[in-house]
Amino acid sequence: MLLHKLLQIRSLPWLFALLVTTFAQAESSAPPPDEILLKNGSRILGEVTSARSGVVTIETDFAGTIKVALEQIKSVNTQSPVVLLMTDDTVQQDSTLVITEEQVVLSEPGQSFPLEDLAIINPAPWELGEGYRWTGSIGVALVRQRGNTDTDEVDYKLDTKWRSKRDRYTLQANGETDEADGTKTADNWRVSGKYDYFLEDPNYLGVLVQAEKDKFQDLDLRYLVGPYFGRQFYDEPVFSLQGELGFSYVTEEYNLAEDDDYGASNWNIHATSDLLGGDSSLYFDQMGIWNLKDTSDVIVNSTFGLSYPLLWNIEAAVEVLLEYDSGAVDDVDSLDQTYKFRVGYTW
Fold first, then answer.
1. How far apart are CA 32 and CA 10, in angstroms?
2. Domains of the chain with bracketed CATH
3. What is the reported pTM?
4. Could you tell me what percentage of the chain is helix, strand and coil, using 3-state DSSP and rounding each to the nearest 5?
5. Is 331 left (phi over 0), alpha (psi -120 to 50) or beta?
6. What's the pLDDT tens digit per position in 224-243?
């Protein structure tokens, strides 16, 4: 028994030495980190995970995810293979790279090219023509007040897109239901679906289908369908702008006023900006319908908003909605203003 314990004690240093040696070998066999050298002399070590729109993303042990603008970078050196998507849509697979002096140098197949020819490092599958990217957001605003006046308000908004290299599907819906002392004071909704087919950048063709109802504007149902031409004028994080112009056939059914149908010219404007930073986003959306049968009849719905992240994929947003209808029926204001605060989920 005593001999057994002595053997155990004497074996402990050997066991410790074996563990240290194994750990050291594991450390030495680990691949060296990627390196970004900044123009100010700073060095960032980690794993370069992507680069797009002039921004390189690197995962670090000390600070998590870091995003660095290309104009601040002197050189990039990756140790792990990456996938490169070029501006001419060609793909370079599984090659380490060095970026220096506005040149990209590949280890395989051993060639170099100007930095301006590089579009994306490690593109997503949909950017390589494989399937669709699904993004979207859904938000709700609730108000419940009890006292001299019992008030219940529910606002909801959905915006989701399926995007591929070839085309894009969009589904949008929003609505509002308000009650005061058991009597409805607002009851409206709008649903639209769009299909876009991309031509040569930055142009595309599309089809719009939309339906809406607003009980307190005397509108029982308005629906329209028609084609449009779209263009992405700018597409940078600091400012993105796209516009669409088309024609549609519109049918309007009213509760009291006379029903109507007409041909119309319609437009859409969508703009965003991350100018405020902190992953917040300023945005502006506008849709207009111009009655070509009665050119004094114009409908313009505009949204000004600011969204900002809370935690995980939950975001908050404040919005100002301006809804103008020059052909509103009697006793109904032509301009409707709404101020909203909502909380939602993004993906």
1. 37
2. 34-123 (no CATH), 133-346 (2.40.160.40)
3. 0.81
4. 10, 65, 25
5. left
6. 999 999 999 998 888 999 99
